[in-house]
Amino acid sequence: MAQENKKRPIALITGASRSIGIGAAIALTLANAGWDVATTYWRPYDDSMPWESQPEDAEGILAGVRQLGSNAVSIEADLADVNVPAQVFDRVEAAMGPVMALVMSHCHSVDSSILTTSVESFDQHFAINARATWLLVREFGARYISGFGDGRIIAITSDHTVENLPYGASKGAMDRIVLAAAFEFKHLGITANVINPGATDTGWITEVHKQLIQEKTALGRVGTPQDCANLVRFLCSKEGGWVNGQLLYSDGGIA
Known about the structure:
Layout: E1 10-14, H1 22-32, E2 36-41, H2 43-48, H3 57-67, E3 72-76, H4 84-95, E4 101-104, H5 119-143, E5 152-156, H6 165-184, E6 191-196, H7 207-216, H8 225-236, E7 247-249
Parallel strand pairs: 1-2, 1-4, 2-3, 4-5, 5-6, 6-7
Helix pairs in contact: 1-3, 1-8, 5-6
């Protein structure tokens, strides 16, 4: 699809703050496929996690996208703020133009169980993983002006709920919001799909954990960010336009 348009289409990718993350891989892969790319990131979240985030990562992703010939913009955005999704679209449209593909790889994930999850943590997970997704999807649908059949909504999900209750539960809510868009936006010709990439090595997997995952996965390895990005690229292409309203497991056949 991108190669057929004289003007490069624009993709907005949330959660691209770490060079080894899924969002970064998606941004670079779509840029290489002919898309202009806008990204969001929120460094305070990464800084609170064991893997942290390097201050130069977001800028490095932006530079990498531009080296591939794409126009690019990167926006620091706290998606827990209900006003931010609209503000992100305002900034992307002002800097680049209307968005044709919305790819949501942002998340909030702090492990806790049914018994140990606090109300504050539960609400924060739903604010970022579910509510922000709804607000981003709503903005995209309300502003969409590209051709019928060209629009794309894609979200990255997880079914890890045991001992990770608020994360898994809020991701489940996110799934339903995105899949609803496949039908509610059918008059616009926007496809909407969710990808579950399984256990993906973005810096959080220990060697012990990696061994366990390899033993459970039919293909005998851990997923990489590029594995997920490859599927996003296909779904954003003209050839991927018939896939719609699906939750796709792209996880190497993990048991």
